[in-house]
Amino acid sequence: MIIKYIQERLSWILFFLFSQLLIILITFLESTIPLLPILYSVFLATIAFIVFLTIRYHKETRFFLVLEQWEKDFDLSKLTYAESPFERMVEEKISSQIEYFKQFATANKWELEQEKDELLSWIHEVKTPLTALRLMIERIEDEKLKERMSYEWLRIEHLLDQQLHQRRLPFMENDLYIEETDLKNIVIQEIKGLQSWCMQKGVGFEISLEKTHVLSDAKWLSFIIRQLLTNAVKYSKSSDIHLSSFSINDSVVLKITDFGRGIAPKDLPRIFDRGFTSTSHHQDHSATGMGLFLAKKAAQSLFITIEVESKLGHGTSFTLTFPKKNTLLSLATHVFHD
Hints:
The protein is α+β, with helices and mostly antiparallel strands.
């Protein structure tokens, strides 16, 4: 701040030095004026000027030091050192701008809430004809047509499900209910939901769950597993998907392994990015790039660690590591109190 203040007052400093040098020059040229008293007065004036600058530095920079250290929390009570007219003008301008942005943000938040509620309502309304459509598909006698229709119905169902959870994700903490959850039951239910698609692609499941219970939110855990299973089925063909659970260092681990096309090494760091699909399969127009992104976000709120290993052309393994019971309870208490 000292350097900035000197730069700000450089014109004052240069003017003072110029005036003192001018006095000395005139004294030197005019022999009738004694030089020593003038040099003494210039010395005293310089000392007085330095003291003056020091006092003014502490007085003038107090407001700007507070402004520089001001956190981005829009708390105007911290701006309490505005004394000069220019400082008060800055403070008033900042206050008016913050008030405007608060009103603007409140209006935008209200509009977003309205849009979210309307979209959620629309999704729920669409699910009613989808259920009726499912019943109509079940009555189709042509098996090939029935399989194709079931697949397209499943795609629509999953896209709507993604949209529903995407809108709920920012408010996920308000929707959590942590309890002892039956992991095996969730896995079985999600596999049943993909049954028609798996039959069409010749995909089976090999399940080996040593640990069948975890402490988590059943609804959001189902959503995470659904995204990973959908991904595994989508990129597999005529092969089995292995699901296993076990314990490592008192933490339950769920591993989902497919033997599909795998993921290119250059894509692995980006698969959880929003909207990322693939750099090596641009022709895959059905991919939205949202499933893994949403699964990762939901997992973070549940303190679940998702890791991925893949080899191009050989398959992919997703590993869910659940937090220890005491860790989850302490972390959840800390987050909700905050």
